[in-house]
């Protein structure tokens, strides 16, 4: 009823004519730019245009994400995500068939994750998603989808445009007269865990959707260094320092770039402090040597005062790293290109700046030194020729390897 009244108010009672897809749409251009080397070219102007569109375009619909629908039995999403439902996120749609994942603010920037929290019950932070995109781009990985911060009017841009009656039913007005809503799932999904506007405006992150699985299929693969998601018990890598020898005997980690890409991912997660990398995804089109997608980074940047060195286990146990990654890390350790300074300048471009507090920025420099120290120990033990893999002479991928999407 609310949706019908809203459409009548805007004179939208007549069926809308089919909307053509504009070839110059930023979402389409982003998808067409995906290649074997990354989600977007190094100097892509499309990324900045896509960030601006996600920030400025009005929403035309809102809905639960696929994993929350799986929890409600509304779809079979087993090939897309592993449902959890603890944290609220919504899919917002825009013109030109644009689609982004919205994660609302759950924790203030100056708050640290409590020491007694297990990593698998930690908050998901919208600013961590934003910061992870900028860090990924600075490291030249280009494996995190473009992400931007935005103030959302939860009444006008979610409640009044959603057709999902379940989502409509979880909106309420708090005693402070703020509009709030919460997730609909089996646990931790009630008014005590709601997010609220002030009274309508709520800040959050918007991450651009990747191409449909029908157009660009992806594989979800367990991380060999997955953690134990229980209160006790250890995985083999946590008790066996020679665990990497076992991994090296298993295809596809026995040859190619897969193990090197796992080390890249571990370095990225260590810098952000993300311990929740239980799976990784890859585009099937690019084969076994394709890049790993660095998705779901909201559990990063929780504790600036603690460096979780166990995240670096793939590097410290395998003692291997790409030359290009090492060169970039060494550059970002130089005073004139200090990682914290580059991140600070990059994050100033986001509408929600400051995205990270100063202690989190300074923690990046400290953790970078720990990574370089781990590499030095490996080189002292095994020699540079064994530890540093030369990937600087790779030939450019042929045009046929670029992601082709049928519009």
Automatic annotation (TrEMBL):
Which superkingdom does the taxonomy of this entry point to? Answer: Eukaryota
Cofactor list: Mn(2+)
Per UniProt, what is one Pfam family of this protein?
Fam20C
What span is annotated as the signal peptide, if there is one?
none
The molecular function terms in GO held by this entry are:
ATP binding; kinase activity; metal ion binding; protein serine/threonine kinase activator activity
Q: Where in the cell is it found?
A: Golgi apparatus
Q: Where does ATP bind?
A: 103, 207-210, 281, 296
Q: Which GO terms describe its cellular component?
A: Golgi apparatus
Keyword list, A-Z? ATP-binding, Disulfide bond, Glycoprotein, Golgi apparatus, Kinase, Manganese, Metal-binding, Nucleotide-binding, Transferase
Q: Where does Mn(2+) bind?
A: 296
Task: Please state every residue range assigned to the domain named FAM20 C-terminal.
Answer: 171-387
**Annotated catalytic residues:** 276
User: PANTHER family of this UniProt entry?
Assistant: DENTIN MATRIX PROTEIN 4 PROTEIN FAM20, PSEUDOKINASE FAM20A
Q: What's the name of the protein?
A: FA20A Pseudokinase
What organism does the record attribute this protein to?
A: Tachuris rubrigastra
Q: Which gene encodes it?
A: Fam20a
């Amino acid at each position: 009823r609310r949706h019908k009244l809203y459409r009548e108010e805007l004179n939208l009672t007549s069926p809308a004519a089919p909307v053509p897809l504009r070839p110059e749409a930023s979402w389409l251009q982003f998808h067409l730019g995906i290649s074997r080397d990354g989600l977007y070219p190094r100097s892509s102007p499309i990324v900045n245009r896509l960030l601006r569109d996600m920030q400025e375009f009005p929403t035309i619909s809102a809905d639960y994400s696929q994993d929350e629908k799986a929890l409600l039995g509304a779809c079979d999403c087993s090939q897309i995500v592993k449902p959890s439902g603890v944290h609220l996120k919504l899919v917002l749609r825009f013109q030109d068939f644009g689609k982004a994942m919205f994660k609302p603010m759950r924790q203030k920037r100056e708050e640290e994750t409590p020491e007694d929290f297990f990593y698998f019950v930690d908050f998901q932070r919208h600013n961590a998603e934003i910061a992870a995109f900028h860090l990924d781009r600075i490291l030249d990985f280009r494996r995190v989808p473009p992400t931007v911060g935005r103030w959302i009017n939860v009444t006008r841009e979610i409640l009044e445009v959603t057709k999902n009656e379940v989502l409509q039913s979880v909106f309420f007005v708090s005693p402070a007269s703020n509009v709030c809503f919460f997730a609909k799932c089996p646990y931790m999904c009630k008014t005590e865990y709601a997010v609220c506007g002030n009274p309508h405006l709520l800040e959050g992150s918007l991450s651009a959707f990747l191409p449909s699985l029908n157009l660009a299929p992806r594989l979800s693969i367990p991380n060999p260094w997955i953690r134990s998601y229980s209160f006790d018990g250890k995985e083999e890598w946590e008790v066996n320092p020679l665990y990497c020898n076992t991994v090296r005997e298993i295809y596809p980690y026995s040859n190619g770039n897969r193990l090197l890409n796992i080390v890249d991912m571990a370095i990225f997660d260590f810098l952000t402090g993300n311990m929740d990398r239980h799976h990784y995804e890859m585009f099937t089109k690019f084969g076994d040597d394709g890049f790993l997608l660095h998705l779901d980074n909201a559990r990063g940047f929780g504790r600036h005062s603690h460096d979780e060195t166990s995240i670096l286990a793939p590097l410290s146990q395998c003692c291997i790293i790409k030359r290009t990654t090492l060169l970039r890390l060494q550059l970002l350790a130089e005073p004139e290109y200090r990682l914290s300074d580059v991140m600070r300048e990059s994050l100033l471009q986001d509408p929600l700046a400051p995205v990270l507090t100063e202690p989190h920025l300074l923690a990046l420099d400290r953790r970078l030194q720990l990574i370089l120290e781990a590499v030095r120990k490996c080189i002292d033990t095994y020699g540079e020729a064994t530890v540093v893999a030369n990937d600087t002479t790779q030939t450019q991928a042929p045009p046929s390897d670029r992601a082709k999407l049928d519009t």
